[in-house]
Amino acid sequence: MAQTPPPRIAVIGAGPSGFYATDHLVRAGMAVDLFDCLPTPYGLVRAGVAPDHPKIKSVARVFERTAAHPAVRFFGGVEFGEAITRAEMLERFTAVVYAMGTELDARLGIPGEDLSGSHPATHFVCWYNGHPAHAHRRFDLGGAHAVVVGNGNVALDVARMLVLPEKTLRTTDASDQAIDVLAASSLRRVSVLGRRGPVQSAFSTPELLELGRLDGVDVVVDPAELRLDPHSARELAAHGANSPAARRLALLTEFSRRPASPGNRRIELRFLRSPVELLGDPAGERVSAVRTAHNVLEADLDGRVVARPTHRHEVQSCDLVIRAVGYRARPVEGLPLDPRTGVLRNVAGRLVGRDSVALTGEYVVGWAKRGPSGVIGTNKSDAENTVTALLDDLRRGRLNGRPSAAPDEVRAWIRRGVPASFGWDAWLSIDRHERASGEPLGRPRVKLTSLAQMHAVVDRARADAVSDSARLAPRT
Ligand code: NAP
C-alpha cells in the first residue's frame, strides 16, 4: 500500500529562526520547503553579524546539517509576496511559517532624519556585509565625526566597524567595496548616543569589552554621565551586584578613567542624550550637525525607567549619522502587522487577526514574532514553541485538512513564478566559489554581492558538471 506523504510546510525566510523551525518540523516527521528572497541562505548570519565576528557565523554549520535532511528543499531567490503570494502558499501547504525577520528600520521621527548622510543601521550593516540589495549604497566616510544613535549591540557593531583597522578589515568577509571605503575613512571620532543611562544600555558585556581592546582606539566615557539617578540606582540594586548591568557599569567606569592616547581614534559613549534634530549644510542637503537634548530619567505608569528630554540642548557638528534604534517587520499583503510593535500579530506563534482569532495554518517565528531581541540561539526555543503550537493544531484537526500539494507540483508552480530560482546545490556552488576566492587572501570568503555574479557562478558550475560527466561517461 502506498504510504501517505508527510504534511508539507512552507517556511518563509532561511535565517536562523527559519532554520530552527525547519529542524523542529523535520524532527516531527514533516516535509519542509524553505524559501528565501536571496539565493544565499542564513539571513542575518550572513548579512547582519559583524564581519569581524566569524565565530558567531560558525552556527551556519548547524543549519547546513538541517538543509541536508532529505525532507528539506531550499528555494532561493523567491521573493514572498511578489512572484509568490500568501494565498498561493496557503493553497499548497498544510501550514506556512513566517520567518522573515524585521528588515525595516525603526524611525527617530525627528526633523532632518532623511538628509543625505543620515542612514538607518540596516542599510549600513547590509552594505558592509555585501547584501545584494544594498551593495550599491554609498557611504561618505570622508568627514571627521560620526554619530551613532542607539545603545544596543547593533550600535556597537556599527561604531566598531567605523574604526576597525584596515589590517583587521582585510581578514574579514566584509564586501570588497566596503573594505575599501572603510579603510579609506577619515573619521576620527564616533559618538554613540544612548537616550537613557548606562544601567539601561542594551549592549552585552563582551561587546563592550571588545570595544575597549581595539587597536588605535580610545573609548571615552564622561564620568558625570555615569552618576546614577535614584531610578537607576534602584534598578541596579534590583538587578544585583553580578548582573550584566552591574558589569557594564563597572566596565564603563574603568573606561572613564583611561587616559587618552594622542593620535588614536575615539569612540565616545554618551548617555542621557537624544537627537532632536539633524541639521543640514548650507544647501540643506547633507547632514552637518546634530542637535541633542539632555534627558532626565523618570518612571512611567508601569514603573519602567524612561527618558524625558529637557530644554537643555547641545549642537555638535557631524558628517555621518547612523540610526541603530531597532527594526520592524516589512508589511506583506494580508499579513497582520501590529503597527505599534512592528511585529506580526500573534499569540505564542499563531498568527491572529485584529479580533485575536487565530488564522488557520499561519505561524511566525523569530524577530517577526517577538521583535528584534536576543541572540541567534534564542531563536531555537522560540521556533520550538511555535512548531509545538503548529503540531498541536495539526493533531486537533485545526488546519485546513487538505493534503499538501505534491513536491513536483510545488516545484512546477515555483518555476512558473520564478523561472530562475536557486536550489541548495546552487548555494553550495556559490559557497565553494566564495571560499576558494577568500583562501589565498587569508579571508573566510570573498562574497558575491550581485545576483548576476551569483547566476554566473552557478551557471559555470553546472556547465563544468555537465562537461565532467560527459568526459567521465564510458565510451560506447
Ligand atoms: P536593541 O538591543 O533593542 O537596542 C536598541 C537601542 O535603540 C536601545 O538602546 C534603545 O533605547 C534605542 N532606541 C530605540 N528608540 C530610540 C529612539 N527613538 N531614540 C534613541 N534611542 C532609541 O536592538 P539592536 O541593537 O538593534 O539589536 C537587536 C538584537 O540583536 C538585540 O537582541 C542585540 O543584542 C542583538 N545583536 C547581538 C549582537 C551580538 O551578540 N554581537 C550583535 C548585534 C545585535 P531604549 O532602551 O531606551 O529603548
From TrEMBL:
Residues 8-162 form the FAD/NAD(P)-binding domain. The keyword Iron-sulfur does not apply. Its EC number is 1.18.1.2. Keywords: FAD, Flavoprotein, NADP, Oxidoreductase. SUPFAM superfamilies: Nucleotide-binding domain (SSF51971). It comes from Streptomyces xiangluensis. It comes from the Bacteria. Pfam families: Pyr_redox_2. It is an enzyme of class 1 (oxidoreductase). This is ferredoxin--NADP(+) reductase. It catalyses: 2 reduced [2Fe-2S]-[ferredoxin] + NADP(+) + H(+) = 2 oxidized [2Fe-2S]-[ferredoxin] + NADPH. Belongs to the ferredoxin--NADP reductase type 1 family. PANTHER family: GLUTAMATE SYNTHASE 1 [NADH], CHLOROPLASTIC-LIKE. Its cofactor is FAD. InterPro entries: FAD/NAD-bd_sf, FAD/NAD-binding_dom, Ferredox_Rdtase, Ferredox_Rdtase_adrenod.
